[in-house]
## 1
Amino acid sequence: MPVVAVNAGEALPETLRHAARALPPGAPIVVMLHGYRYSPRLPAHDPHRHILSPEAGPGGVSWPAALGFTGDPAEGLAVAFGWEARGRLRAAYARAEEAGAGLGALIGDLAALAGRPVGLIGHSLGARVALQALAAAPAGSIGRIVALNAAEFQDVALAALERPAGQMAEILNVTARENDPFDFGLEMLLSAGRRRALGAGLAQPRANWVDLQIDDAATLDALADLGFPTARGRRLMSHWTPYLREGLFEVYRAALCHPWALHLGLLRHHLPTRPQPRWSGLRALPPALPGLRA
């Protein structure tokens, strides 16, 4: 079974229940979460036809394929979770909370059926859905979350980490200075600048949280030293680099499917002590980035 599609508000499909029970020992379960402007109701914006499709869709990217899910049961189980993310940003942000609460319950059932924790990867508001699921899921049901340019605030993440599942899960927070304009826009539009987005990191050190700035040369050097070479360079502004830059999905695959191969303590030891400050990407024009898809 290559990919199982589930949408917010739906019950756990019987096919997914059966697949979870039949998983080989050690095989991972990964839930994939799209971000803003997708809608399972609209064919032109259906995430199951785009980034969450088993094969590359109109944008030329397939998350399941990039994570190594080709249909072999030994590879594990990939779950594509769709939710209504169109409309005004404030409305989509609110719907992400509801979608995450439902997903938390679904993950609890899925983890119990499979007898193992579930991994999540989400981009933008999809990372907010993942953190809301973390706040709602049972203890031990979530193993790791990979958040890609999360459209979420520090205080929300800290609250999720205090919940039963949040105390046991590990989070890899993928950020970029290329995303600074989007973080700033989120802060201004949804909090009038009173709250700080996760692009600035968590603010309070936690043993189960690592910030990974993917447009920082020292960070890319560290990833290369760990066996994960990626494309180099920096754009002035991009919200989509975390899933378009060549080589990064190998990091996410290891983090989610083979967590023993990428221990957070080892990663933290190799990474720079702190990320670069906001707007530091504006100090110089970005070089060409041949490894980034248009």
Note: The chain has one domain: 3-270.
## 2
Amino acid sequence: MTATTATTATDTAPGGASLGTDPVALHAPVIEWFHHNARDLPWRRPEAGAWGVMVSEFMLQQTPVSRVLPVYEEWMRRWPRPADLAAEPAGEAVRAWGRLGYPRRALRLHGAAAAIAERHGGEVPTDHHQLLALPGVGEYTAAAVASFAYGQRHAVLDTNVRRVFARAVTGTEYPPNATTAAERKLARLLLPEEPATAARWAAATMELGALLCTARTPDCGRCPILEQCAWRRAGAPAHQGPPRRGQTYVGTDRQVRGKLLAVLREMPGPVPRAALDRVWHDPEQRSRALGGLLSDGLVERLPDGRYRLPGSD
């Protein structure tokens, strides 16, 4: 596949420095590598459609593919169209979300499905601005759906892509903790002009970051752009920014919230407070976690003092 030039070597990266490499020198080998090495994932198959892409993008945020796959497949069997999900109570989405973590994503996906059914005749919109207007859909998800489902030209910046660009172009081991305007500018500079090629580039750079240009042990020897990589040319300097701290889970409110939700997911109906009190020893932390679930709309308290998932019987 021939990539289309997005810019020239005289264009500048964020901060005013020359890109140093003609983007075409990156496009062709990365896309060719992807052609031969892309994983066969269900949301990449034509039958997944735009709804399958959207579901996968919600699920894959901060969650590895191996955990997402079984939940995604069951979700799509149960709710193959947005209208199917919208017809169910939001609590069923939370229940089906299982242990993927960050369950507010389930509520947001249910809200997006309801909006698609109501505003767009049950079809995921093709227009980027209409995607952005859906509940729970932010800049990244709108760009990903427009690109992967509809072959449009958008900069798709997830953690993997940001890490690839940081190393290959800016010569740093890791990107900033949060996406910056400079990174968005760089992504636009690197984007091929032809929409289908740009969509392929987005998927290819994401896969490169997931499989080879990983955070802890990058497999540089197999990288298709090893010779062009600014970080490797600089001697692979160690990270100089703020310390990178892994997310803790054990003993946190997140863990307690997960335990409380597990009780509600496993029971067919509302549960008494006593059933929730048994899952965690610290009453103050338990109450705080339950209060957060109530505030987030993930749990409802009935007049008789029992608790249930939202909208469940």
Note: The chain has 15 helices and two strands.
## 3
Amino acid sequence: MTDNQNLLAEQRRALILDEVRRRGGVRVNELTRRLNVSDMTIRRDLDALARQGMVAKVHGGAVPVVEASTHEPGFAAKSVLEPSAKDDIARAAAALVAPGTAIALSGGTTTFALARHLLDVPDLTVVTNSVRVADVFHEAQSAGAGGESRRGAATVVLTGGVRTPSDALVGPVADRAIRSLHFDLLFLGVHGVSVEAGLSTPNLAEAETNRCLMRSARRVVLVADHTKWGTVGLSSFGDLGEVDTWVTDRGLPAEVRAEVAEHLPGVVVAGEEPA
């Protein structure tokens, strides 16, 4: 199979996965007509998605894999999901940051990608409850000549707390530290987004820590790829209306963008020119 055929297969499977999540299921005959490919090609695509645990095959089609609302994947497991979309989102989100501002980054693989794009923004103060995010800035500082800090390097404030599977620090210690601080921008990763449940996470303690982050921020920027849409974790910690801007990727369907725009002021689609 050529590289071009591989790319087409990946694009086709991404479209199939979006349809499954958006509609709650798909049929093989519908997909063959829509994508203009053979029945066998669609069945191979569904087999591949099922092996990855992305869909569950049923007679004549596929349905979403239902995860427990308390299931919390580890950082390593999440880091291999949608890496290019996360990097696009991170690049677009970094463009919102002005030098010399105080920002906060929550835990998550998208905020981890964002941290790398912020290394060249001078004189930032960064508050984070993510061990991984803090490491990005600390490693960049220690990489300076002679071990000296780089000029204009970020000042990083890492909260204490109990470590989650996604390497976020949560709980009363983290909450107390965050409540005493105030920052211009919060970049918030999320487990799931929906109109009904708002922003949610499978971790109860993380939900409260995220609430504290949102209350301490002048502006809240959600950084989440299209696969987070329709996912609901155990605990909701905010409504869509509490978000100022959602930075997402081009995989988010146009009808979802329109629906989301009714609830929050701004949706930025990474890689697209603003309307």
Note: DSSP finds ten helices and 15 strands in the chain.
## 4
Amino acid sequence: MSVWLPGAPCTPRGCVRPTARPAAVPLAVLRLTAVAVLLLAGIVLLPLGRRIPAGPVRWWSRWIVRAAGVRVRIAGAAAPAGGLLLVANHISWLDVPLLAAVRPARMLAKTEIRRWPVAGALAARGGVLFIDLDRLRDLPGTVAAVAAVLRAGAAVAAFPEGSTWCGRAQGTFRRAVFQAALDAGVPVQPVRIRYLGAGGTPATAPAFVGDDTLLASLWRVASARGVVAEVEVVAPIPAGRHADRRSLALAAQPETDAEHAHGHPEYRII
């Protein structure tokens, strides 16, 4: 557990409910094959890096999620250019392409990912900003590096909860990354991610929590029926509105479903 980003209590056995009517095995295999093909296409284009226009990146990101069998609905939009800190609640590995579908950004990720076979090298080449969650003394340097990227006019995407949650509960946004937005003088754009099943109830199949393996999570998502990802892009918090990172993190924190029940954002299917 990190000294400054605590882990979530969610586990696959305790929080992930079995799919009532799983998709047929051939369909699940077809979905995973489509995901693999899209990932290979992304790997081929990776050397081009940030020279690839934002439009194709957003299209590719959306189709990664759609290929896995998850429909996508988005409400709102992010600023298309300029320094911006995108922050979202964290449930699944699907959250990463969903944020890229909102606006391509440099992702903030834990250093363990750099050590993953193949994926770690690809993430580094793709511009991921790595952070060591267990080394508190490295935190100021990480904040300064993120602030420098933001000042240069790029977007940075982060999951300030520091861990994935199952979707039926959520964590608290930690404050550290918000200091980078304050130092760089850029807006913060909160994004609210939900996964729904039949009847609009929370779907836990996409959750990637606890000691879950990526392979098990991939199969669970590909085998699920009728999962919808709802992505609500909230109005940006302008630079200078909050004087300290504590109040900025609190303002960006997504509402619970009960608090959000009064709102009816206009979602579009993509």
Note: The radius of gyration is 18 Å.
